[in-house]
Amino acid sequence: MTQDELLAKITYERKFDEGLSNNALCAVVELHKPSKIPDWVPTENEYMCWCAHVYPCPTIQAIEKELG
């Protein structure tokens, strides 16, 4: 799922969940925003996160898994 889709899912599905801070979760997703890997980097992957993992990184994968 794209980052925009993930943010929309968080906002839509969790807007009535009092036990979850949507702002905090959205902030984590924003921190792991994918960016284009430069052409000179020898990889077949197209995007990576600031955490130096290929997108979707383990953090984004964990969030997607918990959201279902």
Description:
- With 68 residues, the chain is mainly alpha-helical.
- It has one domain (3-67).
- It contains three helices and two strands.
- A two-stranded antiparallel sheet has the order 1-2.
- The longest helix has 11 residues, at 3-13.
- The radius of gyration is 13 Å and the shape is elongated.
- The model has no long low-confidence stretch (mean pLDDT 82).
Strand content: 5-15%
Strand order of the largest sheet: 1-2
Instruction: Count the beta strands.
Output: 2
Molecular shape: elongated
The biggest sheet, with number of strands, parallel, antiparallel or mixed sense and barrel status, is:
2 strands, antiparallel
Helix content: 40-55%
Layout of secondary structure:
Blueprint: H1 3-13, H2 22-31, E1 35-36, E2 47-48, H3 58-67
Antiparallel strand pairs: 1-2
Helix pairs in contact: 1-2
Keywords:
46% helix, 68 residues, mainly alpha, 6% strand, single chain, two-stranded antiparallel sheet, 3 helices
Please summarize what this structure is:
This protein has 68 residues and is mainly alpha-helical.
